[in-house]
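Internal ticket #5521
Category: modeling
Description: The requester needs a full-assembly model to guide mutagenesis choices. All entity lines are attached below as received. Residue total reported by intake: 801.
Assigned to: D.W.
Attached entities:
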Amino acid sequence: MTALVQRLRGAGGVVRSGPVPLLSTLGAVAATVAFMVGMATGGVAPSSPLGLGLGVAAALSLLAVMLYSARRAMPAVRRLGPTRTYLQVHLWGGTLFFLLFLYHTGFGLPSGGMVAGLWLLSLWVVLTGAVGLFLQRAVPQVLNTTSSFEVHLERIPGLVDELRARAEAKVAESDPRVRSWFQKRVAPVMAGPRVTYRELFRSPAAHLRGTREVELLKCTLEAEDAAVVDEVQGLRVTKHEMDVHYTLQRVLRGWLVLHLPAAVALLALVVLHVFFILYF
Amino acid sequence: MGSEDRRFEKGFFSPHRLPVADRYTRLTSRSRLFACGGLAGLVLAVLLLASAFLGRGTAIAGAPLTDSHAIFDGDCAACHTPLQGTADAKCLSCHQQSGGELGIYTFARHYMYRSGEADRSAADVHEVACGTCHREHQGREASLQEVADARCVSCHEVNSFEKDHPEFDFAVEDNAGVANLKFAHVQHVREVMAESELVEPEAACLSCHTPEADGKGFQPLAFDRHCDACHLSRSDATEPARVASGSGPGVATLGDIRSAGEPGSQWAYFWNAGEFTDLGGSVVKRPVYHADPWILHNLRKLRGDLYPGAELADLLDTSAEVPPDQVRALHREAIATLARQIEGLRGDPSPAVQREIAELSELLAAVEARLEDPYAPLDATRFGVGPADEADGVATGTMDVAAYEAVISAIIEPCVQCHVVERATIRRVQQPAHGGLARAEFDHRAHVVHARCMDCHDVIPTRELLLSGEDATAAQDRAEVVNLPTIESCRSCHGSRTAPASCTSCHQFHPDKSHWSTLSR
């Protein structure tokens, strides 16, 4: 986990260094100055020369941002540079795109279906992108502080299966009361990976420590069976941590569902927008 | 329990069936996400293209068209040409009809602003399409005349009104010494306030300056309307002037004029002889009037002796100093005088007079025809009085010029209170060469709500002088001083934080609708 966080922090460091941030910042400053001058001399409309220039720059920024996704499928694009450069272009270019987009519109509210669609999609893509960036930074830190181990998402079902098997093996030869408790209380929990948003930020150990039912059960058992209960409880805590991993890692990967289709649709709409501008 | 069973029911204590692992971990693939986005984009494209080419285009248009163009809503082709945008030809297909052959909506004509100068145009080196400045799809309530400053300054070398708008023409023109009128504003304001017991000096301004209905300018000042109430009362009289006799220069009495019967002297037959006092060898006229015919008659007579070569000057009441654009009007003034003289002669049956009438009429018709030709060169100096017109006796010193000047001074004594007389000719009062803001809109009505006359018209420090009781110096307050505000005065209110300062606040790109008929002539 620590290694993962360090890697992510390292990625953050990469994001903040290199020519891309500098160029993006310079581009943003230049666009801001141009916009301010335009506003001081009568305003900036999307169709004014300055507005058109800003719009073209925004469209080019969007294309550059999309290279990050294109590099996975297109070897030719992949050869242009290392992944971190694509990531930098994706993040900084996305921010620059939204700034240029706002300047292009002159901060005017959308009017008409197409413009409203461009507005909403741009806003949605940028917001979900920001959320994704936040998740990429926050989730590893949360896992690092709440979990005692690292685990790969794809391995979780198998490991849960193994935990359950170990618990079943321990309970198989124990007191019938232990087997009954296991069947009623533990087996449903151990059945498979679970999404546990509610329990996400609660310590599993603290959650289980006060379980009066377990303590009462142990009072009625022989020492050997009570030890089995404790071992099963330990496996149950491990399973709970597995669930936290499962939940957060799914969020980390599932966030793209909100971001990517909207981004592709935005690109299509921008192409249409340019076509209509040129045609009409 | 066999291995096959464990695949679907893992854990003998649990009734839960466990699906295979990838059911838990399989997330939507990127290619599927791309496909979803592409599909959404495709659907949007189909809808928008259908709206553009099969429907009314409302989905791709921005806000609705303005009220004026609302009839074209949904008819994209009415204004848009594929791959050419909004071509001017489509605009002019309607608007040119309104403007007539002059094409007042063409770009070259935009320099007319609202000055009404129909012959004013400019080369179209900076020509842009109508739609470049007149932005449509801004909503029903939007104004197409609200052109953004950015459009104006893309051609005009002005960045903003506050910083580098050029000074008004009238503020930079040199008007020194051209008024030919002795007039002091402060003195008049003071006297009008005292006479009418006014408290506010602005009321004194309005006693002479009558606003036009459009609020932009003021009615022309005229002696009869604005000066007569105070000047040339019945007590004003000429100085005693020597009556003409064989022994030297002098004036013609009313009787002399009647008996001479010269052209243009018919007025003398109807004039009240009681206005003249015979002092025995000299005469006094009381009262005198503005453009008094007796004074003017004698001025012409005396000028005829001193400047016999300036015969044409007799056709004018004042000198021939006019700006180039009024030379034609000067000729018409002379023609009118000549026509009156001809009319006065028609009652005389003598053949000589009738021949003269015929000759004069022919001459009059020729001059009028010449005036109708806009390209005919006209020379106002022919009506002037100059050294070349002097009598030989003046140059040789055989004529008693001082005696002439004494007589002239006597009869024009009431006139020179205001006028300048030179070479026995009253010099024509010169109106300012400008007419205020020729190319910009200005409405006094919108400004007097916020400011008083002298807040802006402060080139002559009238208010300060009234408060201090001091007299203005000759340099401060004379007819030549144009008491119009400079652009700095406007900037004290018109700026980004107070009153509007956009180009279209004052300047109009096209002529006002009210000028259409004028422009079409």
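Resolution: model delivered.
Comment from assignee: Chain A touches chain B through 59 residues (CB under 8 Å).
Ticket closed.
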